[in-house]
Design a protein that fits this description.
Elements (H helix, E strand, L loop, with lengths): L13 H24 L5 E5 L2 E8 L13 H24 L3 H24 L2 E9 L2 E2 L5 H24 L1
Antiparallel strand pairs: 1-2, 2-3, 3-4
Helix pairs in contact: 1-3, 2-3, 3-4
Length: about 170
């Protein structure tokens, strides 16, 4: 069977950690801008389907457990730290698998970005607001986008792996 260069590559985990770090930097930079220029609830109209807003999310995805009373801050911080450690171990074990490692690096960068927010502020700063006909998708940020892209790539990697195994 021919080697698929998109999926496999030689090399260590350092480039993947570099990608994760770049995502953390971009995520934190955009959040610093939002915190510096917007007050909670402020919004800027950009297009008919997109606004920039300042939202504080004390919960997880889609504000899950956001009204739980405060314990969720440390719960989700702990999950993020545990996930980051597991992902670093996975990157060390599978650094040569390009698509898998790209996915892991995206998830790592996003997880660390949101852990920094929870640790520093007690909430995650969200600011990307997509909407249509009065319905708003829950606001999100660069870290959330990286996690989503990573999850999609993990699914694609698994589908490609299963296909190659046949």
């Amino acid at each position: 069977m021919a080697k698929n260069n998109f999926v496999k590559s030689s090399g260590g985990m350092l480039p993947w950690l570099g990608l994760a770090l770049l995502l953390v930097i971009v995520d934190q930079f955009t959040k610093v801008l939002i915190l510096g220029y917007y007050r909670l609830g402020d919004a800027t109209y950009v297009t008919s389907f997109f606004n920039v807003v300042r939202v504080h999310n004390t919960g997880a995805a889609f504000s899950f457990l956001s009204t739980a009373g405060g314990w969720q801050r440390w719960f989700f911080t702990g999950i993020g730290i545990a996930a980051a450690l597991f992902i670093v171990w996975m990157l060390k074990s599978h650094a040569g698998q390009r698509l898998f490692s790209f996915a892991m690096a995206c998830i790592l960068g996003g997880a660390v970005g949101n852990v920094i927010d929870r640790t520093m502020h007690g909430y995650v700063v969200d600011f990307l607001d997509f909407h249509v006909a009065g319905w708003h998708f829950p606001a999100f940020n660069v870290a959330d986008s990286a996690i989503t892209i990573g999850a999609i790539c993990l699914i694609l990697d698994e589908l490609l792996r299963v296909r190659r195994a046949r």
